Amino acid sequence: MEKIKALEQIANQLEDELVICNIGFPSRELYHVKDSPTHFYMLGSMGMASSIGLGLAMAQEKKVVVFDGDGSVLMNLGSLVTIANQQPKNLILVVLDNECYGSTGSQCTYASTTDLKKVAESVGFQNTFLFTESEDKIDFTQVLKTEGPVFVHVKVKPGNANVPVIPLEPEEIKERFMGEVQRV
Amino acid sequence: MDSSKAVYQGLKNAGIDFVVSMPCVNLGKLLEMVDCDPDIIHVPVTREEEGFGIAAGAYMGSKKPAMLMQNSGLGNSVNVLASLYSLYKLPILMIMSHRGTEGEPICAQVPMGEATPRLLDALEIAYIHPKTPEEALKLIPESWLLSELGGAPLGILLDISFW
Fold first, then answer.
1. Which of A18, A22, A113, B46 would be A26's cystine partner, CB 3.0–4.6 Å?
2. Intervals of chain B under pLDDT 50
């Protein structure tokens, strides 16, 4: 499955969950297939998606879904350890794994040989899911029912959709997102 | 007045309710006080950069965040401070044990200690330098207000002589 299709299928199964989306093409593609004030699009700070998601999950009660990537998880592996130790019940970490740095020219990451789901399990994630590259439908129902922290490994094809940059200013992204976080 | 108590009380008076931390020997007592406070969520992290990410999420979740760190961790956090905090205009109090200052027994601390103010300047992060516990107690709440109003991190540099 293409990354944009995985993003679209999962995003369309979310309702009022808060979404933190990784820098680069994941954010551009998510914005393209479905925009919502519940989405926080990262424009910088590679590696920080899971950390931002953890802080948000610990600060309030709404469910938080993070769209991360294999290269970004590898850049901040300690975050998996912190999440597994803090055990936020309302955090779902989705890793869209295309085994490459997709936004910089698809250079290979070590995720082709190192299994990130096994890494997550070994640091203490008790609830993990795997969707393989050959699946053409992602049913997120069970993931959403599972108590966090949840690690969802989604293997996707390398390559990006031809979508433009997000036409929102950083502060605009932040302010509408924070408005949504506070909405009862 | 005890220096650790002054910083803790300053954080309390500022309304700080979410703390991420990496230890420094000079922060030991303060970390214990923060950890025992039921009104503060305390998240020890594996690297300062990660802590800044967590604190950004907590701020967007309506918390008032602070980072307890050694100044060496500033070097681990340059990109997140620029491309998350500066870009999205996010506040945080950075309580930094400033090693490599006068009285430093470990020579390895000196280069980063000297670079710290220049790094903060390069990142356009404002910082203060309380010399006494009384000053810290007074300035920390004011610093949070400035940080929140300005939408920018604010550094509190605490030299070896402060402790």
1. A22
2. none
